[in-house]
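Thread amino acids onto this structure.
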């Protein structure tokens, strides 16, 4: 595995950090307080700025280079991790919206999809969403009840999707369903007839990420905006993509919590020693740092395996998400313990991280589903 960060990747990291200074950094901290309209304007602005750095081009396929499952995943992850440490919420909105949508279209989209959307996605001019989960369907393709039925020049689609990130603000929603038993992706436009986006859902954490259920009631989608798959690979590729994004977001949460606890432990209240003076606090910070570093290594190892199409990539994707999402909860909990009353106060970064940390274990494939997968993979191999 090559752990060296090349000059392009270094510059990309610096350019991303360079965007989020001064006023825009202040606005990021208030993301969870913005109403949906203001959130859309702000996220689009951030997305366009990120587009200029080249970040939204990473992880995409190009017809000239030949289509791969996870092209350029290392660069995409290195840059994504930088963004997730600045704002896990912004990272998640951009990743599930622009990046995964861009990857989907660049890998499988029709010529029309590519010419209509890809350039705009790379420039950050389009916010997208991926709608997969349904009630009673832990992502099993055969269980998806969203279905398109052929009509003149297209398909009439009906179905319901749960908790779709970006749904309240998305220009395009890629809905995963089926056509005659085959997996299909339907590209829907914001505000189109038959597409009902529910009210924004209030959540425990990641409050800066807009989410809603969606309802498709006889939605017409023209045939150029539908991708139909001959096999069920799309389901497993999207699961891997989402799990990977959630691992990066969880690492961002964990590193924020650690940085906050470390800074706080060095500050002494009047007439008292700083918390760092206590051996027990130093041990705690050492354990937190070890979890951050181990998570980072696992994430880069996984990215490298994905990019190399290694046979172990899917198993490591599962191990990485379970490890990092659970480590994020542990590190955030320890951060509150180190900061004590200051960490427990509503609105502190440690408190926000503690609430955010639970998300990684639930969204995408849950820790329980992934442990089953890891066990199945182990039993199949050894
Ligand atoms: C904040 C948030 C954002 C989300 N964003 C999106 C999005 O943008 N797009 C999207 O499509 N979906 C999204 N989801 C949905 C998410 O992917 C699902 O919550 C997840 O797949 C779990 O499904 P479920 O909630 O229906 O749990 P259930 O399937 O009802 O599971 C209930 C419990 O049973 C366990 N369980 C279920 N199946 C198994 C199994 N096979 N083996 C072992 N244990 C099992 C689970 O681990 C869990 O503990 C989001 C969810 C959250 C919380």
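Threaded sequence (382 positions):
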């Amino acid at each position: 595995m090559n752990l060296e960060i090349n000059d392009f990747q270094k510059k990309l990291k610096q350019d991303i950090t360079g965007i989020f200074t001064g006023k825009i950094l202040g606005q990021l901290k208030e993301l969870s307080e913005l109403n949906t309209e203001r959130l859309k304007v702000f996220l689009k602005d951030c997305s366009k700025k990120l587009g200029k750095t080249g970040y939204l081009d990473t992880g995409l396929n190009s017809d000239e280079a030949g289509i791969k499952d996870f092209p350029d995943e290392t660069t995409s992850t290195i840059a994504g991790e930088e963004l997730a440490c600045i704002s896990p919420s912004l990272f998640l909105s951009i990743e599930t919206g622009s990046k995964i949508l861009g990857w989907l279209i660049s890998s499988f989209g029709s010529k029309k999809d590519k010419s209509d959307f890809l350039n705009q996605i790379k420039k950050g001019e389009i916010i997208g969403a991926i709608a997969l989960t349904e009630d009673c369907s832990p992502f099993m393709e055969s269980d998806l009840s969203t279905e398109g039925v052929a009509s003149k020049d297209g398909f009439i689609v009906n179905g319901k999707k749960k908790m779709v990130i970006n749904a309240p603000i998305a220009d395009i929603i890629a809905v995963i369903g089926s056509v005659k038993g085959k997996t299909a992706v339907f590209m829907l436009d914001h505000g189109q007839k038959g597409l009902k986006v529910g009210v924004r859902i209030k959540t425990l954490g990641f409050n800066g990420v807009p989410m809603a259920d969606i309802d498709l009631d006889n939605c017409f989608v023209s045939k150029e905006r539908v991708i139909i798959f001959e096999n069920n690979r799309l389901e497993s590729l999207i699961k891997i993509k989402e799990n990977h994004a959630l691992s990066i977001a969880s690492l961002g949460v964990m590193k924020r919590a650690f940085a906050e606890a470390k800074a706080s432990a060095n500050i002494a209240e009047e007439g008292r020693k700083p918390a760092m003076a206590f051996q027990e606090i130093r041990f705690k910070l050492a354990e937190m740092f070890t979890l951050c570093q181990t998570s980072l290594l696992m994430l880069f190892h996984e990215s490298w395996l994905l990019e190399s199409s290694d046979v172990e990539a899917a198993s490591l994707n599962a191990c990485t998400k379970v490890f990092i999402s659970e480590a994020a909860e542990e590190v955030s909990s320890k951060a509150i313990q180190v900061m004590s009353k200051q960490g427990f106060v509503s609105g502190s970064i440690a408190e926000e991280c503690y609430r955010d940390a639970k998300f990684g274990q639930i969204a995408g494939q849950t820790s329980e589903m992934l442990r089953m997968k890891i066990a199945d993979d182990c039993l199949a191999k050894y």
